[in-house]
Design goal:
- The chain has one helix and seven strands, in the order H-E-E-E-E-E-E-E.
- The strands form two sheets. Strands 3-4-5-6-7 form a five-stranded antiparallel sheet, covered by helices on one side.
- It is mainly beta and about 120 residues long.
- Helix content is about 5%, strand content about 55%.
- The chain has one domain.
Amino acid sequence: MANKEDLWEEIPSYAFISLARRGMEKISLEQCFIPDCDNEDPSLLEPLKSEEFEDDKKHIKDIHIKCKKCGKTFILRLETLKKVAKSTKNEDEILSMGLVYAYDENGKNLGHIGYF
């Protein structure tokens, strides 16, 4: 099992939220995503464990994080879609795309956060 510092290294620092036709906005993933919790202090977050799943279309990594401010645990789901497109520069290169979701400790989907 990875230690807590290694788990932080597995989490991208930020994701991008689509603003429809107005572009993208950068959002930090070092915050609590539990509704009604306003914790944006990474020192109050404790990554607990990581789980990984994979099939031929995507790779999923769930990272369980405890918020010391609200006392609840949430899950950051990092989903990497394989073979989204082919590169225009190198025909042999396959491009992938990462999506980030938040779940509560019971597995309820709290929503799509953005892209990484």
